[in-house]
Design brief:
Elements: E1 12-14, E2 18-23, E3 26-31, H1 33-39, E4 42-46, E5 53-54, E6 59-65, E7 69-73, E8 78-83, H2 85-89, H3 92-96, E9 105-109, H4 121-129
Antiparallel strand pairs: 1-2, 2-3, 3-9, 4-6, 5-8, 6-7, 8-9
């Protein structure tokens, strides 16, 4: 059962439909409800390796659904500390719980000031209303 539409207030959002939960100098990243809904049922998550570097606004992996393959865009730059094994083994968890069990990677940010240019929930909702 896919999750109900939601956009948690405490997250920061990237215009490419990715989110970041900032925790000190670390951040957990994932795709928004809007993204998983547009893609449909996910069947594969191609994750980066632990220790890899991700760059803000650049692809760090791919999600494949029954409809399409899409790049996952990083909202922040940093080093990959952890990949969610559940998202790799059971990618449908992203559809079921995109902000909880369906997170994708955890990074140590290389530039915490990048958080300041991400969208808050109101700005993100306005952005998707224009889609």
């Amino acid at each position: 059962m896919a999750a109900a539409e939601s956009y948690p207030d405490e997250l920061k959002y990237h215009p490419e439909h990715d989110w970041a939960r900032v925790e000190g100098d670390e951040a957990v990243l994932g795709v928004t409800w809007f993204a998983q809904d547009a893609l449909g049922e996910l069947v594969h998550f191609e994750a980066p390796e632990v220790g890899a570097t991700v760059s803000k606004d650049a692809a760090y992996g791919e999600v494949e659904s029954v409809k399409a393959v899409s790049d996952v865009i990083s909202p922040l730059s940093g080093e990959v500390l952890e990949v969610n094994p559940r998202a790799v083994d059971e990618p449908e968890v992203v559809n079921d719980d995109p902000y909880g069990d369906g997170w994708l990677i955890r990074i140590r940010m290389s530039d915490t000031s990048e958080v300041d240019v991400l969208l808050d929930v109101a700005a993100y909702k306005a952005h998707i209303a224009e889609q």
